[in-house]
Design a protein that fits this description.
Length: 179
């Protein structure tokens, strides 16, 4: 994380490693995660503001891709929101440097199925393209104001339905009462 320098990527200030547990010191974003922010502000955010927030995430992801990183866990829960609604990509626990444009997961590694492209699940190989799929799911989460994708489906059902060509239903258009 220390090598990332972009307005839409969370800043790492340092690591405290002399005590257990090891801790990281990173930028504080007052509004917390995007999913919770959207749920709390359901009737207050215009579609234009949602689009602006989504664009910020896209810029952060474009930057990560340009320096050879694949995030592998892009989801609204891993985007942090500043006071001015700037969205920043965070939670790099699954992020990896790509080698020859892809990253292979060791057998048994955990995969966030609801946000992962079917081919990445099948082949356990992640690329910028699989991050683009995750970004599409993140857009769905954003415009559904933090709902859970594929709610009510277990991971096996999600994978089977995706393999059969099913996709997320369009998010419900919510009437806005924004002043």
């Amino acid at each position: 994380m220390g090598q990332f320098h972009h307005d839409n990527v969370v800043v790492l200030y340092g690591v405290i490693s002399r005590i257990d547990p090891v801790m990281i010191v990173m930028e504080y974003l007052q509004n917390g995660s995007l999913d919770r922010y959207l749920q709390k502000n359901l009737d207050k955010i215009s579609h234009e503001r949602l689009a602006k927030m989504s664009y910020g995430v896209a810029k952060g992801m474009k930057y990560l891709s340009s320096i050879g990183f694949v995030h592998r866990d892009l989801a609204a829960r891993n985007i942090l929101v500043a006071n001015d609604e700037t969205c920043k990509v965070a939670d790099f626990g699954l992020a990896r440097e790509m080698v020859e444009n892809e990253y292979d997961v060791q057998k048994g590694g955990r995969i966030p199925v609801r946000w992962t492209a079917p081919e990445a699940i099948s082949h356990r190989s992640f690329t910028t393209a699989s991050d683009v799929w995750s970004y599409g799911v993140l857009l769905w989460e954003t415009f559904s104001f933090g709902e859970t994708p594929y709610d009510g489906w277990d991971n096996a059902t999600i994978f089977q339905r995706l393999e059969n060509g099913e996709r997320l239903h369009p998010p419900r258009v919510r009437p806005l009462h924004v002043p």
